[in-house]
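USER: If only I could read backbone structure tokens as easily as an amino acid sequence. It would mean a lot if you studied the pair and described how this chain folds. Here is the record:
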Amino acid sequence: MSILTFDDVMLSFDGVRALDGVSFSVDPGELFAVIGPNGAGKTSIFNVLSGVYRPQRGTVRFDGVSLLGRRPHQIARLGVARTFQNIELFSNLTVLDNLMLGRHHHHPYGVLAAFGWIGKARRSELANRHAVEEIVDFLELAQWRRHPVGLLPYGVQKRVELGRALAAEPKLLLLDEPVAGMNQEETEDMARFILDIRDDLGLPMVMVEHDMGLVMDLADRIMVIDFGRPIRTGTPTEVATDPDVIRAYLGEEHRVES
């Protein structure tokens, strides 16, 4: 069974359709990519999944539960985590502190218990710190663990952003342009970590990305959208050789080697 179904979704703003009958599904352990020109509706899909937008038509179900009408924090508690195209970290806090923020809904105690740091609060804090240290090792962040995020290289900050999403222990990970602005070495590092998340953690992912080489190398299936409408969904090879995709997204003369 699919862990996520996005069925016949229509989203419009003042008569302009951002999404027009978009449908796709994501299977357990699958890396599903969404590509398309700027303004095609990719971010709108993520905002619907995150509870920022509510579509006028369609259904969105995650792990058997409808996401429509739920607030972002409720969807996060269900097990959906996301990264952002523009880094959304606390630059004055350390890597460890930023990762701990991803554990916020794993704190089963109140403010008073937190001040006292005894009993359940202490046990929970230690367990959460252990979980964060595992992410530090997984993403090879140990040398920067106590550094303020704002002083780190851009590629490392993007890795911390990914780590914060993983800290929530999601059942589904949304990656919004994970290699945007990275150089070749940073992109290769991020690609390796994304594959590790899929292969070692078995975590299904939905990825929006403009780097076609990365998408073709990593994705199990790809959906191409243009002006809010799906053009083609299939394997990287099927998508790369589809004439409609080439016309709408890659250009008539461009071909992707597969």
Observations:
- Confidence is low (pLDDT under 50) at residues 253-258.
- Residues 96 and 185 are 24 Å apart (CA to CA).
- The longest strand covers residues 16-26.
